[in-house]
Amino acid sequence: MAEFTPEIVDQIVAACTTGAGEAGEALGRALDGEITVSVGSPATVDPDALPDEFSGAGLVVVLNVGTAAAVFLLPESTGMIPAWCAAPDPTGESKLTTLAQELGMILLPEEFMPEDFKAAQAKNLAGALRRGGIAEGAGLVPLELASEGKQGTASLIWPIPNPASVVGTAAPKPAAAAPKAAPKAASKPAPKPNPPATPKTPAPPKRRSHHLSELPKYSRSLLRIKVPVVVTLAEKRQMLGRIVELGPGSIIQFEKSCEDMLDLDVADCHVATGEAVKVGDKFGLRITSIVLPEERFHTVTPES
Q1: Cβ pair 86, 192 in contact under 8 A
Q2: Domain boundary among 165, 195, 214
């Protein structure tokens, strides 16, 4: 695999130019508008002279490629970022994640497909970029956006050495000072007898989210096992006599409607359903629902 360095600028410009239309559609679906994209002239990034539009808030898309990343920056000053991006609900988070995945497949060359991706709003684009680090001579491809009379410029910058630090978390709030002890009273009245204690119902345990890096090593090694992922368009049973009669130009008719959802199977297990989408010149599946695992019950009989 070629190295993810600023020298691949021609490849990235070619990918952005080819996928400009698809990138506009992806941005439009995620940001609730019609957006067109055109590619500007590439340049390099000077960490000491970042563009003025990076001084404010904006949308950051991090596309991890190996140990580095490319970042897509869309300033809030363009007026194309909806208000919900600042605090997205689960639907909004899903839209941003889908946007990050689509932009990674559209704007980067095929040999540099992102292994992970994330999208979030940052309060200061320059600060987010500096947290991630800017490699010497980092490349920049400007993407000119137009949407319903609005004009703006997004930027694709690479490589970023510390992608995990680009979208940071807020600093923890300082702990409140301990209250001062009240002065002791001269005398205390005799304590009253306590009423019988009422048993308290224990509070349900709080669910804690875990990151993959917190799993034991043996669990993380299991996650690297490759399993087949299959999308099934339709299926039917046919007599063997008809199968051997098939040839070029034969048409097999299925009972499934073209508007029905497609099934996603992982290792021969049905896990989700979704709809077909086009990502660049590739076929994709947008997951619409996850299938819960089947419950299995075993009869317990007492010993005789």
Answers
A1: no
A2: 165
Entry pTM = 0.61
List pLDDT tens digits, range 152-175: 999 999 999 999 999 864 333 444
179: Cβ contacts below 8 Å, ≥ 6 apart: none
Residue 266 lies in domain: 225-238+257-292
Residues 124 and 41 in one domain: yes
CB atoms within 10 A of CB 114: 22
Q: Is residue 244 part of a domain?
A: no
Please give the pLDDT value at position 37. 95
What does the alpha-carbon distance between residue 231 and residue 62 come to, in Å, rounded to a whole number? Answer: 27
The tokens for 7 are 């020298």
Last residue of a domain, one of 139, 165, 191: 165
Residue 47 pLDDT greater than 80, yes or no: yes
Tens-place pLDDT, residues 76-127: 999 999 999 999 998 889 889 999 999 999 999 988 988 889 999 999 999 9
Instruction: Please indicate, yes or no, if residue 148 is contained in any of the structural domains.
Output: yes
Encode 146-173: b = buried (16+ Cβ within 10 Å), e = exposed.
bbeeeebbbbbbbbbeebeebbeeeeee
DSSP 245: T
Q: Are 11 and 157 contained in the same domain?
A: yes
